[in-house]
Specification:
The chain has a 5-stranded parallel sheet with strand order 2-1-3-4-5, sandwiched between helices. It has helices at 12-33, 37-42, 59-62, 72-80, 104-111, 132-149, 169-184, 212-226, and strands spanning 52-56, 83-86, 118-122, 154-158, 188-190. By secondary structure, it is an alpha/beta fold. Strand 3 (118-122), helix 6 and strand 4 (154-158) form a beta-alpha-beta unit.
């Protein structure tokens, strides 16, 4: 059986010197690849850590004529770090059916499967010619369904978006109806005023839909109204 030779122990001073060399080499390698701590802390949260949000609305909330990331719901969600499902449908309203036959009721049904922490819902010009009693009944019903399904969700409603000319009284009436329904379930209803009035350059050629700059103007107005509430968002 071979004889095991005892291991020689390095003198302590030599061992410390070697350890120092190894440590210095490792630090030099890390310095070339490590990212600053500040960059780490500023990074966006992972998708599964982002609060979820849904948008219920019309063609303006859908972002007709602009890129998906240029619509006001996308801009607001990005500002707050929310993961957004934009369910809005062109032409739709609480009563008015959109281009694919869907109303806000269909959008709410989709929202019920998504478990959002934030719900963005817009009054719409598309309901301005509908029977106000039906608009009110549908708004009350749908907001009630959302609150029952998501008792802890933050519901944020906004007034309808008009164009460069003066907003008609028929849309004022829709705003009042939707605002009352949102507040009745403990939501926040933001009166945006008239962010596009007198600003034709913020609209697409149809005079109805905001262009990318117009969408930014709407999102900025929403943010200005959210500012007093930001501590509780």
């Amino acid at each position: 059986m071979p004889t095991t030779r005892p291991r020689r122990r390095r003198p302590l001073s030599l061992a410390l010197a070697l350890a120092a060399i190894v440590a210095a080499t490792a630090l030099a390698g890390c310095a070339a690849t490590a990212r600053p701590v500040a960059a780490e802390s500023a990074a966006a949260p992972a998708a599964d850590e982002q609060p979820s949000a849904v948008a219920i609305g019309d063609s303006i909330a859908f972002g007709k004529g602009v890129r998906p990331d240029e619509s006001w719901p996308a801009l607001v969600a990005a500002q707050h770090g929310w993961r957004l499902d934009d369910l809005a449908v062109s032409g739709s309203g609480f009563v008015k059916a959109g281009w694919n036959g869907k109303t806000y009721g269909d959008q709410v049904t989709e929202a019920l499967a998504l478990h959002p922490a934030y719900i963005l819902i817009a009054a719409t010009r598309n309901d301005r010619y509908e029977d106000p009693a039906r608009v009110e009944a549908n708004a009350d019903q749908l907001l009630g369904e959302l609150r029952d399904a998501f008792p802890h969700a933050r519901i944020i409603g906004i007034t309808g978006i008009w164009g460069a000319d003066a907003q008609p009284a028929t849309l004022d009436r829709v705003d009042d109806i939707v605002g009352a329904a949102v507040r009745a379930v403990g939501g926040d209803f933001l009166d945006l005023g008239r962010p596009l009035e007198g600003k034709a350059d913020l609209l697409q050629p149809d005079g109805i839909h905001p262009n990318a700059a117009g969408q930014r103007a709407v999102a900025a107005r929403i943010e200005s109204r959210l500012a007093p509430l930001v501590a509780t968002l």
